[in-house]
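Hi,

I'm pasting everything inline rather than attaching a file, because the server keeps stripping attachments. The sequence lines come first, and each chain or strand is labelled.
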Amino acid sequence: MKPNDPTIRWIEDPPMGLSGRMYLPLFVQGLTTTVKHLFSRKVTLQFPDERPKIGNPIIYRGVHRLNKDSQGRVKCVACFLCATACPAHCIDIVGAESPWPDREKYCESFTIDELRCIYCGMCEEACPVDAIELTSFLDLTGRSREEMIFDKEKLLSVYDKTKDREPSQSVRLGVPVL
Amino acid sequence: MHTPETIVALIKIVLMLGGLMTAAAYLVLVERWIAAWVQDRQGPNRVGIPLTKIRLFGLGQPLADGLKFIFKEDYTPAQVDKGLYTLAPIIILTAALAIFAVIPFGSVLPMISVPGISQPIELIVAPRLDVGLVYVFALSSIAVYGVILGGWASNNKYSFLGGLRSSAQLIAYEIPLGLGILGVVLMSGTLRLDKIITDQATSGVWNVALQPLGLLVFGVASFAEAARLPFDLPEAEQELVGGYHTEYAGMRLLLFLIAEFLHMVTAAFLLVILYFGGWHLWGLTGSGDIVTWPVAILRIVVLTAKVLAMILFFMMVRWSWPRFRFDQLMSLAWTVMLPLGVVNLLLMAVLTEYRSHLGGGWWAFAIISWVVSIGACVVAGLMAPLSVDNRPKPHVHPWDAETSLGD
Ligand code: SF4
Ligand code: SF4
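And the predicted assembly:
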């Protein structure tokens, strides 16, 4: 579109008043705003000393956990739905024949690359047995990339740490635990 | 033999240099605090005493910043002019520090009974220097060389642009700066800064009440000379990376940054001394040349407090006003500040000459001065040289404009 296109409607700035032209009155106005902010309440969160308030930990999307059933076994049935749903391709599952009579498969290994994960929660949505869930843990740190690839044990231990604070979906909905 | 006096002078120089360096370091912290608070943040508040958990509201930050600068690699890019590249920060810092030789940081101390010292010690490194203000001017112009050399020697487009902008800007604003000072000099009849303070203390009327127009002109020009926002075009980060010190790192960058802060401190000192009465405060500090210890200390405290308040004002302005465009900067200097400065000078000349005929003490002087000043500002506003319209013309395409220029 060229500047001389007839369809363009040119809008003029409103003409400046005397205080605008004299500059100083408006300057004082600007300075007043600055001074107001100088003394206003600060919004910074002093992170390690203060924790951010998480509105609803149940729906917060932080570090993952692998849920256990009532007998302490991993709930996952190695259906690969979460790995398929994951847009970041960061879930790696090795399925195997289950040693227990009540299900056919279980996951022999289950790793999530927490650095690649975008915490979208699609895995949680996809899981048919509510085995994988996102907790409200948010300060996730590590000293190496390898450390940030969570394996099955680590994911299960996250469950142990958070199970009291954040009951799993099926418990909350009153569905009998497998 | 002048030995005791030489020692006194050396002590004053050491105190001054130490004080200025510490002040510059802490002003960086204050600047960061103000920046943060204005933006509703907390600002640096973590660094306290090293190796402990004591935080002290971040008062250890300048130490950490200084150490960081010192331990950074002092890198010299390959394409620079080595000699000038090294010289530039040294010139600018030397000039910035040398200015303080004629700036009083108090009034006088009471007589000390040390053999060899026959007069009260004046709190100024070079006392009784009759060309004080001229000296300030000369050295502040030398600081421009530091900026231009730094920009030129870096052999980098952005640095060079920063240097060029700085030279044009500083030359343009020296004139309003000079006109602002001239008004004060006309009234006091002296170029000595300590005399100017004593004058205001004796009459009890600060110059700000007598020549507001002078304050406006001088204030705006000193913002420009110190290259503070809204006149920080030489180093406009958003346009020129870092301006004239883009290619500098480590210690040499630190020298530039300190010099910049010292320019601001100088400007604050000059504003306070020329227009806000220096160390004078009614009913507290007296005005005589013979003082007792409490009064001497009180004067230092009052002067420091005023300068600090002025510096805080400089820092607040930084976050209140957007940067000028370069053409606006120039037209402000030449079409607003210069005429206003001339008006102020004429006004001061006339009023000083006929003061004895006015009657009513300082009142008549002040009232006439304020009326004329406000009138001059309104006229300047009505002519509106700052609202230059440089938006694209709706009917001329840039290409067409170029062709029509070509033939
Ligand atoms: S939260 Fe999203 S990205 Fe992370 S593992 Fe689950 S599906 Fe993948
Ligand atoms: S976590 Fe859930 S979705 Fe993923 S493989 Fe196991 S059962 Fe399937």
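Helices of chain A lie at 18-22, 24-38, 81-85, 122-126, 152-162, 169-172.

If the labels don't parse on your end, tell me and I'll reformat.
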